[in-house]
Amino acid sequence: MTAETADAPLANSARIFISYSRKDLAFAERLAAALVEKTFEPFIDKTDIAPGEPWQERLAGLIASGDSVVFVVSPDSAASQICGWEVAESARLGKRILPLVARATPPDAAPQELAKLNWIFATDADDFDAALDKLAAALTTDLPWVREHTRLGDLARRWDAEGRSNAAVLRGADIEAAEAWLAARPAEAAEPTELQAAFIQASRRAASTRQRRIVAGSIGAALFSLALAGWALINRQEAVTQREAANVARNEAVTQRDLAETAQKEAVKQRDAAEAARDRAEKTLAAATGTAQSLSVDLAHRFRDEQGIRNEIVQSILAKSKALLDQLEKFNPPTDAAALARIEALSQMALTLGGRGDESGLRSSVEAYDIAKALRDRSPETPAIDSAFAHAAEIRAEMLYARNDPAGPLIFAAEADKAYGACAAQDPAQAQCSFDQVNVRGWGGNILNQQKNYDAAIAAYQSATDLANRFAQRAPGHGLEIDKLVAALHMNAGNAFLGKGELDQALQQYESARAFMEKRAQQPDAATSDLTALANTYNSLAKTIDLQLRQQPDRRRAAQELLYLAGARDLIQRVATADPNNASFKNLTALLQSNFANACANFGLPQEASACLRAARAAAN
């Protein structure tokens, strides 16, 4: 396949796919050259269609990569099957389509997707430059929104191709940005595709259930849910009362057989009516309970990182939410689904209240753990229950860790590790349990590392790394995500070796982390956190070499230290340039410049050292 593009495409220009008939090639090439002069990045496909060639797949990729599509209108393109397909595919992908008339063509002869669009005329009888200006203005209208349409479309198609796995969804601030993009669609822009909307919705769901992100909610909705649940309780109690009265009437009718048959039928009728009322009330109660549980989770998420609300208000609202759940549980049958929902609600409350220093956070974590343990004892070898128990044990460990408990966090982290392993063994396709097991095992290593139990910490990190490598072989679709986790395990193991004073082993671990992090940082979708993590890896390598040089000077090793420090400095400068208002990046840039200057001075490079010190002072200011 040959796709013609501009020789030097501009990063800030729009990518334009030109759809045309082969008989209009000269016009298409003239148009492409003119668009390049206006800083656009046009591309046209000049490959002939060979018999049997999968041309649709090839052209679909070109169309998908473009921000907009310019359709060169002529009698030949209007009659072309391939051009018609290109227009339909562009519409399916939600691309902005701009018809540019090269030769006079009856409107009803063109593809129907063009009928409702404004045509721009650039025939021999028209002013080409004026038509080009009009086209350029249309192409740059709402360009940031259109570019994001292209980016999210690519991500959504990748997510769909990977079986709609949670590993490929948006994360963190990208979710909120995508939701804002949906809400901010300009009036003239194309509708987001169903796949894009489903992708953003799946990202929000994954963030809510597994990564404890903030979920939209409101106190007004909470009050409404409380009122709904209260009404359901009253309604159910009334239904129970009616049923009891109907039963009394029925028994009386049976006992007094000499009463009229009509009275007995009336009693049966009352009983049936009471049963129906009870069923309606129980369904309403179940719906209200589900709403209350879901809203309790949402409120806990919302208040977790919210700094503008006083603690006593948050504590009061969550306490009332929990009291409602306690009351509703008395009237609901004890099902596994209800228990799982209650465990999740209590766990999220524990995280929010514990993070605000409220003792009730620990109590909520204990209650969630006890419910999960009883449920697991009642229904063993069930992946969903094993996962819920592991999650509850993990949160209880976090609550005890926040209280500086020396032994409790390790005990419950080990229980979580074992339960996640049971979940993964029963359902190997459930990648989340395997991923969580690696995480909690590595977290246990971090606790041991902080307690300066370095040997046990190193063993935990090695065990977690082995587990992650087996997981990677079983789930190749999660490769980059696992690489990032393994890199963190190697970094932490390096810190443990450094704590022991074993510098060579620390360097080996940092080198392994660097290999994984460089792979991640080279990806097109590499985040700021990936670049910062790689910079920290370089800095740790340089620091360890510096410690070695203090024991035994070596010019070759000193040169390696300079390379690592320069790499760390350059990465952080890239990050700081992308986010100039981030004070932490600015401070880190200055620190790395200073470290690099010191290393230059130690290596006997005074000019480089002086330049680095000046750069460090400038960065600090």
Spatial separation of the terminal alpha carbons: 52 Å
Mass-distribution shape:
flat
Indicate the structural class: mainly alpha
Tally of individual helices: 23
| Biggest sheet statistics | 6 strands, mixed
**What Rg do the Cα atoms give?**
32 Å
The amount of beta strand, in percent, is under 5%
The arrangement of helices and strands along the chain is: EEHEHEHHEEHHHHHHHHHHHHHHHHHHH
Low-pLDDT runs of 5+ residues are 1-12, 210-229
Give the overall pLDDT as a whole number: 75
β-strand number: 6
Portion of residues within helices: over 70%
What order do the strands of the largest sheet run in, or round the barrel if closed?
1-3-2-4-5-6
Short description:
The protein is 72% helix and 4% strand. It is mainly alpha-helical.
